[in-house]
Give the backbone structure.
Amino acid sequence: MHLTPEETHRLSEPINSDFEHSFNKLDYLAFQLMLSVCILIGNIGITFIMPTVVVMDVSLSMTRPVSIEGSEEYQRKHLAAHGLTMLFEHMATNYKLEFTALVVFSSLWELMVPFTRDYNTLQEALSNMDDYDKTCLESALVGVCNIVQQEWGGAIPCQVVLVTDGCLGIGRGSLRHSLATHSQRSESNRFPLPFPFPSKLYIMCMANLEELQSTDSLDCLERLIDLNNGEGQIFTIDGPLCLKNVQSMFGKLIDLAYTPFHAVLKCGHLTADVQVFPRPEPFVVDEEIDPIPKVINTDLEIVGFIDIADISSPPVLSRHLVLPIALNKEGDEVGTGITDDNEDENSANQIAGKIPNFCVLLHGSLKVEGMVAIVQLGPEWHGMLYSQADSKKKSNLMMSLFEPGPEPLPWLGKMAQLGPISDAKENPYGEDDNKSPFPLQPKNKRSYAQNVTVWIKPSGLQTDVQKILRNARKLPEKTQTFYKELNRLRKAALAFGFLDLLKGVADMLERECTLLPDTAHPDAAFQLTHAAQQLKLASTGTSEYAGYDHNITPLQTDFSGSSTERM
Amino acid sequence: MKIFSESHKTVFVVDHCPYMAESCRQHVEFDMLVKNRTQGIIPLAPISKSLWTCSVESSMEYCRIMYDIFPFKKLVNFIVSDSGAHVLNSWTQEDQNLQELMAALAAVGPPNPRADPECCSILHGLVAAVETLCKITEYQHEARTLLMENAERVGNRGRIICITNAKSDSHVRMLEDCVQETIHEHNKLAANSDHLMQIQKCELVLIHTYPVGEDSLVSDRPKKELSPVLTSEVHSVRAGRHLATKLNILVQQHFDLASTTITNIPMKEEQHANTSANYDVELLHHKDAHVDFLKSGDNHLGGSSREGSFKETITLKWCTPRTNNIVCSSVSELHYCTGAYRISPVDVNSRPSSCLTNFLLNDPRYKIDGSLEIPLERAKDQLEKHTRYWPMIISQTTIFNMQAVVPLASVIVKESLTEEDVLNCQKTIYNLVDMERKNDPLPISTVGTRGKGPKRDEQYRIMWNELETLVRAHINNSEKHQRVLECLMACRSKPPEEEERKKRGRKREDKEDKSEKAVKDYEQEKSWQDSERLKGILERGKEELAEAEIIKDSPDSPEPPNKKPLVEMDETPPVEKSKGPVSLLSLWSNRINTANSRKHQEFAGRLNSVNNRAELYQHLKEENGMETTENGKASRQ
């Protein structure tokens, strides 16, 4: 940005040291173990990408002429090129950072233009397309899979724009053939849909609805969308095939998939107009009870700040670049504030660069403080804003979306209860900032944190019995541990109805008693006998002695009293 | 994803009839002798678990894994059946933990082998299971209340896991028929009730278990739809570890779990504390955790896990965090995390498992006790208050660059002030007054202005104005805030004459500034000093000029701008001159200036100036072509 970071008045200014508001909660002891699936370094530079693959049908059927009265003759491929030109122009203006690739296909497929931000190259390629043989959609889709996976892996969402005339080919490799054999696929020749990456498949038909419905083309194309888990849409030309109607069809695609998402970022009285990129997808929380997709607010309100260490690396639905933008009076975007070497930046953009922008302040502050801002995306829906390094020199303000719900990150507790530090009686971070209230301890500890008893494998049972035995041999020093282990075994045996075990362990303790060496402390014999007796009573199952909450307590002896004194 | 799928409600129906007291005929050695010690002693005879014990511990293991991975919204209702049904817990979240269930099972105790078998039946339990499935859970209730008119969207599905010892396939058929009939009846009842819900879908999982070595009288049968509401499957399983394995498989199927094995975890040996060996730990978790692996085609599929589990496990190699603390190791970095999944160790009590979990649970950071939940709305309030006055650029603010203002600025944003706060604010203000009296320099930015920036009293005026803006933004918070403002207003106001004098002085300066008197230099100043008769009247103005010099040299004062100012403010001739009648001051100063100018030669600079501007040190440029820097100081190479 045009402001130097030094110029910004940071959130960290001493006067507002408690501005970094944070959060308080209770009972913090253990942490719920979670297996986190993280995508580590390597993908960092491509954090905010939603690439597009344009898949263009160059089979012979695309050269079918379109009759337009009183003008030169057009072929369907010309219409397609016209539509794509419109798309590319739109992207060149609004999605400068986006990568697009162009694939052409007939019975074979070819990557005409690998992923690029250079829309001129894409545009040129459109005018240099030859005509080939028949349509073979499946192999082209396999090609798309390969290209995307090679370039972006399996986690980056990708939009696939398939441009075809609705003639789906004949014989082997035709879409009809592919669909008919779909159920007989093995893992090795899996159908390419659903795409092995988050995707949208937009099918742009150079044909109108009537034409497609006269055959089963539309049904087949709909099957394709279904196979992509419903992710995508079919577009057809309304009315006669002409440039105007093609434009309107591509206009609909642009509205749906390539409209910039504008929002207002707010933090108290500080605000900034921003573009969130890529556009956040609507999210369905529960298809049954709440089937209406949730859309994020266009007012993004910051509700607080928290240390990166406290939020850890939380799971997120999606990540987005937050770009400051300048809006003119009509509310139209006039340009993003991101640095750009483009010389013909318009003047509004230049002015935008000179007005102090809250985004810059926020980004710099989060970066310096090692914190993230929690942002409200909607009712019971939150996300976080943070600085992420794109390269060694450059970093970006990013926004990640958590799953909607009152408690998206269990280790932070309920979002609605994360209040400011200053409201806490005692600073939960300590006076020296040397402690943290997070992660929160779950109300019910998980099994691995509560010393549960599992005897499914004999080794589990044997370990527990041996623990008792080991402590029995060190009586009276280990009296407390001995009874603790004894009671743990007793409880489990009672719950499992495993009374034979109680009898067995009682026998074992009695035997130990007889094996005590002469040098043994006299208390040892008393405790062993007492414990054995109590276990035997419990093994009768009578409620008097077999109460689950009852604990066997050490026998009070003169020795035990004096031994304590000695200790 | 559906919250209210079959997995929302699981009913365990475990047979508590006399035959369940029978031994599973799998022996457990429990008297493992420690070597070197027990020569000549015969170990105690091995014992064996009853069918009941096997059933209960396997179901508890199912619940353990389920609760670990789904601590909420996945509920279990535990029923044991003999001469009647004993419902051990309810759907409420408080009842959903292992301790509750274990205590309740202990109270039931093992089946009584001497009870009359004729009176006992698993049917009681199955009927109770259907009944309990109709009962609404707190989550269902909450969702229904929330959805209002769409309450019917909340589904009611469930699963009955019945562990029994059946006599034959036809006996199994009879149990299924009974469940189906009961559902039919209870759905009729539920239709007319507000507290009950009709069962839309019920999965019956019948597990026939029998002692090892016996022939099964019941055959396995995969899932089959008995009616639109009821599906049923039959598993015939030998007791003992076979039953446990079966339930482990089922919990994975029912809750979409998958397995990951963390391999090569270095752990210290008990016997040899200095050496460490590598261990593997197998974990269960939701299978979504594997989606990205499988998609990437790079599946780390290792061999099948130990102990006869059916499934494949993905192996991940352990990587020891740089610090001893998994949380702190990631302090400075946010990783792109696509999912975090709760886990449950397959073998929870094994030493490697507990080593791993203890390592992960052991977060050395200080923990706090006590309960404190602060509404998020308070955070929004606070942000609102803190940002009422918040200059975004350092050069736009004076007070936030002054350490002396901190005590006031840090408390004034509070909702309410203590007496001590007010006192501190007042002290701050007095301190500022003191600074002004002592003419302490202020960190006023000169960005965007020409020359040396505003004069000292102008600086203080700017500072006081800014402070007033800050305090005024908060006066409606409380009466005490009001008092701070009162104090501020009282302190910054000067006796009227002085104020008036200051004002005049300022006007003159303004003029001077705007008519580009920035060229004033030593000579001019000397001439001012020479004219002794003016001393009395213009003392104030002279002082200011002297101060201006001090500011320039003071290390505290900001560097003069070396950038081109963003906005050229003073291109236009001063408005002041043409506006309104000429003031007494300007008449007077004009006269003095004219008088003075006669006493000295006019500067070459002023004579050669264009638009009253003169370029300084032109000779330097001419001499060596070097650029001059700001303030006329030639840059030192």
